[in-house]
Amino acid sequence: MIRVQSLQLSAFCHATEDLQKVCRCFNTFLPVELKESVKPTVRTVRGHHGNPIEMVQLSLKGEEARSSALKIFSGLEDKELQRLLVTLPDMFEGSKLFLRFSKHSAFKGLQNLTSGGDAVKVIIGFSGYLKSKNYVEVLTEAGLIG
After folding, report:
1. How many angstroms separate the CA atoms of 46 and 36, rounded?
2. Which of 6, 10, 18, 40 is placed for a possible disulfide with 58 were both Cys, Cβ 3.0 to 4.6 Å?
3. Pairing state between β 119-127 and 52-61
4. 139 vs 6, 21, 103, 106, 145, CA distance in Å?
5. Which DSSP helix (H) or strand (E) runs through 120?
6. In sequence order, what are the residues at sequence separation of 6 or more whose Cβ sits closer than 8 angstroms to the Cβ of residue 100?
7. Which residues are bridge partners to 11 per DSSP?
8. Residues with pLDDT less than 50, the chain
9. What backbone phi and psi angles, to 5 degrees, belong to 59?
10. C-alpha angle 33/27/3, rounded to 5°?
């Protein structure tokens, strides 16, 4: 049986952005029951030119990860889901699915996949035997798609 084991959200907050707004955009990817109970961690790093950049991360495990992954997949519009399914082989590495969503869309509560740099990165880790399955089967068996 394949299950969602972990989920990590991360984004960079540049000096020109509001840190609280970047933290709140994670709520786009969380079910209602987790929005108040989980809080991201913030770490300051330095950019290429020495400018401060806040690295915002939230790590979830078990049921919190599973319910958040369900929220993400149920929130995808049909065209976004179809785009994802076409590109799945490029988004999996081992037992992890790597997704990127537009940070600016997430500010508005929207989940738009992107390949751009200014993104909310989502890593979904799966447990179970994945080797003999194609990627659509992995998502189906994990209950993320019908």
Report:
1. 29
2. 40
3. unpaired
4. 14, 31, 24, 23, 6
5. strand 119-127
6. 113, 114, 115, 116, 119, 120, 121, 122
7. 56
8. none
9. -115, 130
10. 65
DSSP 8-state secondary structure symbol assigned to residue 33: G
pLDDT for res 47: 86
Give the number of other Cβ atoms within 10 Å of residue 32's Cβ.
9
Tell me how far apart the alpha carbons of residues 124 and 65 are, in angstroms, rounded to a whole number.
8
The alpha carbon torsion through 72, 11, 95, 7 (nearest 10 deg) reads -50
- Measured between alpha carbons, how far is 85 from 54 in angstroms, rounded to an integer? 32
- Give the Cα separation of 5 and 110 in Å (integer): 24
List the domains of the chain with CATH numbers. Answer: 3-141 (3.30.1440.10)
Beta bridge partners of 31: none
Is pTM beyond 0.90 here?
A: yes
**Residues 84/64, Cβ–Cβ less than 8 Å:** no
Residues in the chain: 146
